[in-house]
Design a protein that fits this description.
With 136 residues, the protein is an alpha+beta fold. It has three helices and six strands, in the order βββαββααβ. Helices cover 29% and strands 35% of the residues.
């Protein structure tokens, strides 16, 4: 089953993206270091956003299937760009913070799930992913 996203270019390097099933709207803008104003997520920011949110979501799904409520989790993603020779995402550094109460056996399972979430598996081997976990 596919999902459609409708995207309209609005000028001045801005796009309006609409998630067809829900009607949610997401604006994008070119980043400041690439002729834009940086007024919203850039398309490459969304790559990092997709990775971090996919990791958290799939870990929560795995925990739910095991009958575990993980409680609050968070992720921060730092994106590094290169031009070699064309501009691309070179590295995504993801730092995930989870509750200290997560059982050590469950931690290994969840970390594997994060490493193999659909977005991580979709990224090219040319994009380095550095993933760390903190249990606090």
């Amino acid at each position: 089953m596919g999902v459609r996203v409708e995207i309209d270019y609005e000028g001045k390097l801005h796009c309006r993206c609409v998630h067809a099933p829900s009607g949610s709207v997401l604006p994008t803008d070119a980043p400041r270091d690439n002729q834009g104003l940086g007024e919203s997520f850039s398309p490459t920011d969304l790559v990092g956003t997709a990775l971090g949110s996919c990791m958290l979501t799939t870990m929560a799904i795995a925990a739910r299937k095991s009958g575990v409520d993980l409680g609050p989790m968070s992720a921060s993603v730092d994106k590094e760009m290169v031009a070699d020779p064309k501009r691309r995402v070179a590295k995504l550094t993801v730092a995930i913070t989870m509750p200290a109460s997560v059982d050590p056996a469950m931690r290994a399972q969840l970390e594997d799930v994060a490493h193999t979430c659909p977005v991580a598996l979709t990224l090219s081997e040319r994009t380095e992913v550095a993933l760390s976990f903190t249990y606090a």
